[in-house]
Amino acid sequence: MQVKLDANRDDLLAYVAELYYDLKWTQEDIAKEIGVTRSMVSRMLTEAREKKFVEITVHRPLSYDIHLMEQFKKLFDIEDVKIVRQSFATDQRRRERVGWAAANLLETMLIPNAVLGLVWGTTVANFVNYLTKKDLRSYAVDVVQLVGAIASRDFTYCGMELVRATAHTLGGHPYYLNSPFYLENAEMVDNLMKNKIVNETFQMMGKCRYALVGVGSLSNELASFYLSGDITVEELESIRQTGAIGSVCGLHFDIQGNPEATAFSEKTVTISKKNLERIPIRIGMACGQGKVKPILGALRGKYLTHLVTDSITAEEVLKLAI
Fold first, then answer.
1. Residue 61's pLDDT band (boundaries 50, 70, 90)?
2. Does 308 lie in the same domain as 209?
3. Of 130, 248, 261, 291, whose CA is between 20 and 30 Å from 220?
4. What is the overall mean pLDDT for the chain?
5. Ranges 106-120, 124-138, 214-228, 234-248: which has the least confidence
6. How confident is the model at residue 155 (pLDDT cuts 50, 70, 90)?
7. Are residues 42 and 82 in the same domain?
8. Domain CATH number, residue 19
9. Which pLDDT score, from 0 to 100, does residue 57 have?
């Protein structure tokens, strides 16, 4: 069959895509069918994808490294750990899979009418994306923002939007922390705490049964509050000079988990370490080489009761710990 390539182009592209993807024709057979070259068919298939006539979804299974999980439980004082099996260090979707595993973990522990504390962050955003695919509204779980906002306009760092989406999914009410994460001095933080709405949010933090948190790095490439412009490179370096290597909820610690950079923390609007430790279930999510030391410090400092990471990161944490 000879076709006019400029006649009803979109219908032709869809027809070629159906032959290739649905009916499993080879590109050579399609070329003979419509009277073009094989390379032309390849270009048409590409054009069909670009025009969204074709949507390809890869359903990659989620599996866990049980052996590594057992090692973690023996070495660290932690209630549970989920280590996603990861074969490729360059995999661009590692955070997505860790977020997916965290969403699955939380679902197994949910009880009705509880309160969940949430922060912002890349892996946390992936957790929210997977959680919102579930039908969990019957749990009526309220969600409270644990950390103030940073300057970034990126969805992954919009604490209010992440809290809203999570509360909608869990059938509960959102409680926002209407404040910047970082203020100029501790006095400004004290004055802000007198605000009725802000105080209400902090009161809700005390009712949390769960906390879903990221584990932050202090490297120039990963420190979100530096990348957002909330602090300068000099301020970031001054935090590192105290011995701090990571943070949870903006609370900094060294490799042994000891609190550091407390002068900086006094200028942040976030849950206190004491109140964080009162939350029975604290699920931390992180992966990648830059998070190895922060994960170890967070575990040693008991910032987390549960950890979700990938096998490549977990192996590096074990090497550093032993």
1. confident
2. yes
3. 130
4. 92
5. 214-228
6. low
7. no
8. 1.10.10.60
9. 78
Going from the C-alpha of 185 to that of each of 89, 265, 271, the distances in angstroms are 40, 10, 17
* Count of the separate structural domains present in the chain: 2
- Can you tell me the mean pLDDT for 128-137? 95
310 neighbors 84 (Cβ within 8 angstroms): yes
pTM of the model: 0.84
Of 153, 290, 147, the C-alpha closest to 229 is: 153
Assess if residue 268 is contained within a domain: yes
Q: Which domain holds residue 80?
A: 66-321
Does the pLDDT of residue 2 top 70, yes or no? no
The whole-number pLDDT of residue 7 equals: 60
CATH number of the domain that 256 lies in?
Answer: 3.40.50.1360
Give the position of tokens 């990221």.
Answer: 214
245 touches 219 (CB < 8 A): no
> What does the block give as tokens for 71?
């090692």
Alpha-carbon distances of 144 from 118, 136, 140, rounded to whole Å: 6, 17, 13
* Nearest to 121, CA basis, from 221, 225, 193, 263: 225
